[in-house]
Design brief:
This protein is α+β, with helices and mostly antiparallel strands. It has helices spanning about 1-60, 65-75, 115-125, 165-170, 230-245, 250-300, 320-325, 335-340, 345-360, 405-445, 445-475, 480-500; strands at about 80-85, 90-95, 125-135, 140-150, 150-160, 180-185, 195, 210-215, 220-225, 305-310, 315, 365-370, 380-390, 395-405. It is elongated. It holds the Pfam family PAS_3.
Length: about 500
């Protein structure tokens, strides 16, 4: 009997350990899956806000903001509202406007919204704020990308994800999930206390909670198992004791039961292994799709990303980086040396020095330089980089982006050449007109009359040149491309020559 009791209690204990290990695996798999989906959601929010910020930085506030917002919402479907905020913190554009009438609201003066906004400005990079009680009602998470024009803060591009959308994106049902409890929280900067935004009571479960923290945000997502695995093992132990006391003579039965239990355990493990494999395959396909969408977004924006592991001195590129550098990802070996070889020799020391000082001073940087790609082909790129450190403040990795700005750089250079040519042509024609006027005055009038008329005409000529320069400055801001500017230059030159001949 004692042996049977020992055996049943041992089996109960093993069942308890088995259930506990299974629950830990399920929790770990659940948390890993949520983390992967969170990472995808963050990357989509980052891509959307970065795209909108790039449009504003390059072309100013778009006149077709609603069309761009509709395209972003249709493409990503991970957020509900698209916003633009000016440099004073005032919301200027919102889509959709229905149920989101917050235009004119200043987020920098709001006690609720200013924390995340100021953190975004301080970081000079993408940041997710919230959960925040929205002015228009409800609770949401707000992803913001700061906009800097000529090194001056000019506002935010932002997307708003309501909590219902947030949990739907993560396939989380906070009301009917019987296996897990979820809670969303953030630390109140004024009180220092943790605030919770869902109705679930975490008091008795917090010691079992698994928090998920995001480096780009100020919030935590708790995942709490609510199943009591002790019950099954406990009742199994009691049942074993009763069976041992009443049926001590049936030792062979328990031996057979143990064998059947092992078979059941192996069957259950095999079933769970198949489920985990299916979950892994599904997650892998979702990750591949997310990577494909990210690569497509980078290709549209001509924006590549790179990551350097400082400890191992290894460098990795995204696909768009290979397109920008015109390298074959199958054959090109990405190293720090091969990267520097592509940088123009006159910019190479500057790039290396800027990166070294950034790592040393723990500050991100932005830099524009030229690439020499061979066959006399050059490109101009805009690089941004930030380095991350461990708890001992030792650098562990650097993450950066490189954007191809060659087209913009060449257009600005061409416009500058046309501007200089026009100014030189105006000076030449002005001198010729003055010489002609002086000769005519000397021919048809006396000296005093000539001098008087000459002074009046020079005054009018000066005013005319001033007006022409004003007209030029106004027109340069309106031309769309170099061909239109070229046409405008020769058309106005022809008009001036015609007026002179008359």
């Amino acid at each position: 009997m004692i042996i049977l009791i020992f055996i049943t209690q041992y089996i109960a204990y093993q069942k308890y350990l088995l259930n506990e290990n299974e629950q830990k695996k399920e929790i770990s798999n659940r948390v890993d899956l949520i983390k992967e989906k969170l990472q995808a959601l963050v990357m989509y929010s980052y891509s959307a806000t970065k795209t909108l910020a790039y449009i504003v930085e390059r072309n100013g506030i778009p006149a077709d903001f609603d069309a761009i917002a509709i395209e972003l919402l249709d493409r990503y479907k991970y957020f509900d509202v698209v916003e633009l905020v000016n440099g004073k913190g005032v919301i200027t554009h919102v889509y959709p406007l229905e149920d989101n009438e917050v235009i004119g609201f200043n987020i920098l003066t709001s006690a609720e919204a200013s924390s995340g906004a100021l953190t975004t400005i301080k970081r000079k990079d993408f940041f997710i704020a919230g959960p925040i009680n929205l002015k228009q009602g409800g609770v949401a998470i707000i992803s913001r990308q700061p906009i800097f024009i000529n090194e001056t803060f000019s506002g935010f591009s932002a997307v708003v994800t309501k909590l219902s959308t947030f949990f739907n994106d993560l396939n989380i049902d906070t009301s009917s999930d019987s296996n897990y409890m979820y809670q969303l929280s953030r630390v109140n900067e004024d009180t220092g206390e943790e605030e919770f935004f869902l109705e679930n009571d975490m008091t008795s479960f917090k010691s079992f909670a698994v928090p998920i923290e995001m480096s780009f945000g100020e919030w935590k997502l708790y995942v709490v198992p609510v199943q009591d695995t002790l019950n099954t093992a406990f009742w199994f132990g009691i049942f074993g004791c009763i069976i041992s006391i009443l049926f001590s003579w049936a030792v062979w039965f328990f031996a057979g039961q143990s064998q059947r239990f092992n078979t059941l355990m192996h069957t259950k493990l095999a079933k769970q292994e198949a489920q985990l494999k299916l979950m892994y395959d599904t997650t892998s396909r979702q990750i591949e799709k997310s990577e494909s969408n990210l690569n497509q977004a980078q290709q549209i924006a001509k924006l590549g990303s790179w990551e350097r592991d400082i400890k191992t001195n290894t460098l990795s590129w995204s696909r768009e980086m290979f397109r920008i550098f015109e390298k074959n990802p199958e054959t090109f070996e990405v190293t720090r040396e091969t990267f520097l070889d592509a940088v123009s020799p006159e910019n190479r020391d500057m790039v290396l020095k800027t990166y070294t000082e950034s790592v040393k001073n723990r500050t991100p940087y932005q830099l524009v330089y030229r690439l020499d790609l061979g066959d006399k082909k050059n490109k101009y790129v805009n690089e941004q980089c930030e380095t991350f450190y461990d708890k001992n403040q030792n650098p562990i990795k650097s993450f950066g982006t490189i954007q191809d700005i060659t087209e913009r750089f060449n257009n600005e250079k061409e416009l500058l050449v046309y501007k200089n040519d026009l100014e030189r042509l105006v000076e030449i024609r002005t001198e010729e007109l003055n010489d002609s006027k002086e000769a005519l005055l000397n021919l048809h009038g006396g000296p005093k009359f000539s001098i008087c008329c000459l002074r009046k005409r020079k005054s009018k000529s000066t005013i005319g040149r001033f007006n022409e320069v004003c007209i030029f400055s106004h027109h340069v801001t309106r031309v769309k491309n170099a061909h239109e500017f070229h046409y405008w230059l020769y058309r106005n030159t022809f008009k001036r020559i015609s007026r002179t001949l008359k």
